Amino acid sequence: MKRRRAARRSRELPIPVKLVFGLAVALVVLTSAELIARQMNVARAYQPDRIGGWHMLPAQDRATIRSHEGHTFRLSTNEDGLRTTLQRSRTPGKARVA
User: Fold this and answer.
1) What is the pLDDT of residues 13-62, one digit of tens each?
2) If DSSP codes are grouped into helix, strand and coil, which group holds residue 66?
3) How far apart are CA 30 and CA 37, in angstroms?
4) Residue ranges of the domains in the chain?
């Protein structure tokens, strides 16, 4: 019985070897998923020109903004770049909900 346990322990791979094998498998899986997605013409999920386009632009006076749906709307901001009449600094003693 002791001999079987000793033989089993000697066949186990060291941790660095297991880590390298795991990284190799992950690389193969992710690369093949990327290649399959490119063959199927799947669009990228992150498109910086369409997603996350909110920026603080100070002193906009009825600027024309085009939405994702294709229509345009007007946007005005104060000198802090906020779409509100409130200033960025708070008035002491007053609670503010925005």
Assistant:
1) 899 999 999 999 999 999 999 999 889 887 666 555 555 555 555 666 77
2) strand
3) 10
4) 2-39, 53-86
Tokens for 61, please give them: 């006076």
60 burial type by CB count under 10 A (0-12 exposed, 13-18 middle, 19+ buried): middle
82 exposure class (CB count in 10 Å sphere: 0-12, 13-18, 19+): middle
Closest among 71, 75, 97 to 86, alpha carbons compared: 97
- pTM, 2 dp: 0.38
Cβ(86)–Cβ(98) below 8 Å: yes
Question: How many residues belong to the chain?
Answer: 98
